[in-house]
Amino acid sequence: MMYDIIIIGAGAAGMMAAITAGRQGARVCLAEKNEKPGKKLYITGKGRCNLTNACDTEELFNHVISNKKFLYSSFYAMTNVDVIDFFEELGVKTKMERGNRVFPLSDKSSDVIRALWDECIRNKVEMRFHSNVSSIYQKENAMWRVTLADGRELEAKCVIVATGGLSYASTGSDGAGYCFAKRLGHKIKPCIQGLVPMNIQESTPALMQGLSLKHVELSFYTIVKGKRKQLYEDFGEMMFTHFGITGPVVLSASSHIGEIIAKQEVYAALDCKPALSPEKLHKRVLRDFESRPNISLKNALSSLVPKSMIPVVLHFMGNDGSKPVNQVTRQEREELVHTLKEMIFTVHSLRGWNEAIITRGGVCVKEINPSTMESKLVDHLYFAGEVLDVDALTGGYNLQVAWSTGYVAGKSAADQALAKNEKKRGI
Hints:
- By secondary structure, the chain is α+β, with helices and mostly antiparallel strands.
- It is built from 14 helices and 20 strands.
- It has helices at 12-23, 39-43, 57-62, 72-77, 80-89, 109-122, 176-183, 204-207, 248-263, 278-291, 297-300, 310-317, 330-341, 397-425; strands at 2-8, 28-31, 52-53, 64-66, 94-97, 101-104, 126-128, 133-138, 144-148, 153-161, 188-194, 198-200, 212-224, 227-240, 244-246, 266-271, 343-350, 358-363, 381-383, 391-392.
- The strands form five sheets. Strands 1, 2, 7, 8, 9, 10 and 19 form a seven-stranded mixed sheet that branches. Strands 12-15-14-13-16-17 form a six-stranded antiparallel β-barrel. The protein has a three-stranded antiparallel sheet with strand order 3-6-5.
- β1, α1 and β2 form a beta-alpha-beta unit.
- α10 (278-291) packs across α13 and α12 (310-317) crosses α13.
């Protein structure tokens, strides 16, 4: 079968590329190994699909961790405002929530996938499911041959690789795009999990399993030559689990310091009362104790921390909590304040790929033209989405990367393929 463009992967970037190219009149084939499109898109935003973030366009770059300069052209080619307008035009009404996060009004990712699917059909994109691509190569006449695992062969003037990364392998993300790119001469930056929970070495988090904390400060550090070296800190929400810690602050931290965690010991320091200095917190503790002098320390802590945290606080203090607060010494109060301001956990490792929201690493962007998403090494080969060495924080930013790079790749490939058609016809 002959096409103008073959796109490998029917995720967010792949479907956006297909729609963009199809709208320009290109004959597009979208090859997807799964039985339906958008399997990872379906679970994003806990099934609600955080489409993008409605912050200023320049602010988008501040939330990109890897290779933000590479995205300059694509973010302006299809802005976050363009993304919202795009889905509104497809009939997906949107709403904005805390942190400028944009969701479909229905809170259903299935509505987003259905709208993309319908638009692909409207633009005559040929969707091939259960089509696992085993190899791609360029023939002597510059045409691309795409071979499927069942032996079928497809040909096209251009190929767009939008296969995703390694996160959530159950959705079909198996790293195949990296293999294709490497065989064609591209460098691949080593991949690690991004936006992922962390395993804690101590057993104390398990005692607080399910406890969610808001308005706390979490900082990460390592020890270099006997001195603390600060790596990352953030303010917000986190949660304890049976294995360790998770939540927005933890996920963001994982993408900033994941490589370091893999190489050396990293510690997480939790400040439960970041709004209070140690001095002010000590005065508050003293007031609480004076108001109920005969209550035990264990019971007095209920006014300072959640119930499930009390045994852990006492553990860090080395105190059984049975002493009445009117007998608690100043030193013990200072130990309590220190614990509330700095509860330290040893980060053992990141959680596995099936819990990682994104993949960090991928196809080296120095070998990709940022204005077209075309390979600088191989003509008529394009990349889009998570397969690239580009990643961002939570809040809709990673999907914005997918929409923008998918749009640019689809438009550029269509321009290329249609120009070849006109040249062949002598126009």
